[in-house]
Design the sequence.
């Protein structure tokens, strides 16, 4: 417990020194600019892979994974864009989506480089290609999650028929586990491939674990706050949805950056202590 306290205290010191709060704000701003174009890209990819007829159902499935207040903000805007715009405009939007979403990914790269004290960055083209690669990966993951959520009830029915057992009707637990697993996998990929130097030989799981715990706790507290304090809608008026999204992205940025700082502290500690 004493060692854990020392690590967390040193992590907070590094987090403050590396302007973690400001970097989380940068991530939140970049993510806010990218989220709607990225969802357009993901929805178009879903429609391309599983057909236009099931694309709307798949989009609805994606929002079942998102926190309630986030989904309430994003869903109507996305449906309006997909139903009211022509294919030419939508195609242009997809190209813009890829570029803007890659900017949001690169914001995390900058935060990781600061946390891990990497002075030299990769070339612009390589950085951009890596970021775009994560955008496509995110789109594919969105498709997999949407399809999984759509067809899981059917699998439940088949399992009940074959095994003659009663499975829980609610999918809340399954969606929670699926969303958390995707978050963990994305964090792992972020730590391994986004920083300007290879992290494959480093232990990254402690920081990922801390980030997941902070993210889940922050999302829960944020949801409770929004439920118990409806005055935020009065405070921000028509901008309420935008503010909610920005705050959620900000909390996510803080959790991920803090986890990277944990890894940096443990790396320095191991280097100081020497091999055991």
Sequence:
């Amino acid at each position: 417990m004493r060692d854990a306290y020392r690590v967390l205290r040193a992590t907070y010191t590094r987090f403050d020194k590396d302007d973690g709060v400001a970097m989380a704000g940068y991530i939140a701003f970049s993510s806010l600019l990218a989220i709607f174009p990225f969802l357009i890209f993901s929805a178009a990819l879903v429609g391309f892979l599983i057909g236009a007829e099931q694309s709307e159902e798949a989009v609805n499935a994606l929002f079942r994974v998102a926190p309630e207040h986030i989904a309430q903000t994003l869903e109507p805007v996305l449906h309006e864009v997909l139903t009211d715009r022509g294919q030419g405009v939508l195609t242009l939007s997809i190209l813009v989506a890829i570029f803007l979403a890659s900017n949001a990914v690169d914001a995390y790269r900058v935060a990781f480089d600061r946390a891990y004290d990497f002075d030299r960055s990769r070339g612009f083209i390589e950085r951009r290609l890596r970021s775009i690669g994560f955008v496509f990966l995110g789109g594919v993951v969105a498709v997999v999650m949407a399809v999984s959520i759509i067809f899981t009830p059917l699998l439940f029915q088949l399992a009940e028929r074959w095994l003659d057992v009663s499975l829980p009707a609610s999918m809340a637990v399954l969606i929670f586990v699926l969303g958390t697993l995707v978050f963990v996998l994305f964090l792992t990929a972020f730590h391994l491939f986004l920083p300007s130097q290879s992290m494959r030989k480093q232990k990254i799981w402690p920081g990922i674990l801390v980030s997941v715990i902070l993210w889940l706790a922050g999302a829960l507290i944020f949801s409770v706050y929004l439920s118990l304090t409806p005055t935020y809608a009065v405070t921000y008026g028509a901008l309420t949805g935008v503010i909610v999204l920005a705050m959620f992205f900000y909390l996510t940025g803080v959790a991920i950056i803090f986890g990277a700082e944990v890894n940096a502290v443990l790396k320095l500690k191991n280097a100081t202590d020497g091999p055991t």
Observations:
- Residues 2-273 form one domain.
- The CA atoms of residues 114 and 206 lie 18 Å apart.
